[in-house]
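Review this chain:
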Amino acid sequence: MARMHTRRRGSSGSDKPATDENPEWSDVDAEDIESRVVELAEQGHDPSVIGLKLRDEGVKGVPVPDVKLATDKKVTEILEENDAKSEYPEDLRNLMSQAVRLREHMAENGQDHQNKRALQNTESKIRRLANYYRGDEIDEEFTYTYELAAELLDDE
């Protein structure tokens, strides 16, 4: 997705270690991890932030390098089981909040052509992602509008 609206290449980053079992130094009980995930979600954290917090802070002082290896479930699956899942997927929500911020900026700075294009690109990404999720993660009738995105952000 890095090359969607530019000629630039994506930036390289580190890869997760290729392993299929939880390291022995991280022997936290799966139920403890699940309850901590739900607790963090109730505090308003997104799934990606929950993963970072578990990695950095851990559960009962023991870091959890990979929730899926430790519990056999993804963070989003745990949230789904405990009815703590948000209405829209995290990546779609983040793009919508970016679009709202850009739209507000454009209202004050109509002459900012660079950000006008950035807004067009962001809204294009939202529509593409909505097509991907439609009927599965989001409602079949979903159509992106600025009003919907602004309302979504006001609810949070």
